[in-house]
Amino acid sequence: MIRRILARHRLAIRFWSGWVSTSRNGRQLGPRPILALHRLPDPNCTHCGGRGEVMGGSPGQDEPDYDDCHCAPFLPLAYIWLPKPPRFSRHRRPAAHDPWGPAGYSDEPPF
After folding, report:
1. What is the pLDDT of residues 71-104, one digit of tens each?
2. Which of 67, 82, 90 is nearest to 19 (CA)?
């Protein structure tokens, strides 16, 4: 039922693992995981053709620029900050010591 309501109003819930936002005093918040409610592009839009982005750029440019269309803004309508993962799960464990060294052989003499 929720999926039908969201589809009727062209809305989607998306998960962003590293969202960075700006508070009212200009300080950055994040990166934090969020669940966000986004507007989907209009399938009948004549400007973007229902893709939500418009390709642009100059002929001498290697890669084209992509801009958001007016029918689907990138910023979410509403979002919920999710808790950060615990610190102990973010630590990287060092790899086991390799007795043969990085090249796969020993440089010690055989005697």
Report:
1. 877 788 898 988 877 777 666 666 566 665 566 5
2. 82
